[in-house]
Amino acid sequence: MAWAYLFVAGLLEIVWAFSMKQSHGFTRLTPTIVTFVFMFGSFALLSLSMRTLPLGTAYVIWTGIGAVGAFVVGITFLGESLSPMRVLAAALIVSGLVLMKLSTPA
Fold first, then answer.
1. How far does the chain reach from its first CA to its final CA, in angstroms?
2. How far out from the chain centre does Cα 91 lie?
3. At what angle do helices 29-49 and 2-22 cross, to 10 degrees?
4. Which site among 6, 12, 29, 51 is 20 to 30 Å from 37 CA-CA?
5. If we measure between CA atoms, which residue out of 58, 69, 70, 67 comes closest to residue 101?
6. Which family does it belong to (predicted)?
């Protein structure tokens, strides 16, 4: 169950990162509220996953899901650039996540 909590926590991180961008420095009410609600949910699920998973593993996976997810959302919805170097960087993050998962017993 810890891995499921961690995966959902990572997805929620993507949502709050996107809504934070949309809040324009917390000057727009609705995206600001969405940011804090999803941030709370993400942290809560991360903390539940840490009951079982090692700190380093949980934190790396959580931030990795958020980083790669925010990268994809930025390209898809915000028109951010898609260069070979950025794709390579995202691929390296994903490979690190896979290695971290494979090296963690649980």
1. 10
2. 15
3. 160
4. 51
5. 58
6. Belongs to the drug/metabolite transporter (DMT) superfamily. Small multidrug resistance (SMR) (TC 2.A.7.1) family. Gdx/SugE subfamily.
Half-sphere exposure of 7 (CA within 13 A, CB side): 6
One digit per residue, pLDDT tens: the chain, 106 residues?
999 999 999 999 999 999 999 999 999 999 999 999 999 999 999 999 999 999 999 999 999 999 999 999 999 999 999 999 999 999 999 999 889 888 877 6
The amino acid at 6: L
pTM over 0.85: yes
Query: Which structural domain, as residue segments, surrounds residue 8?
Result: 2-102
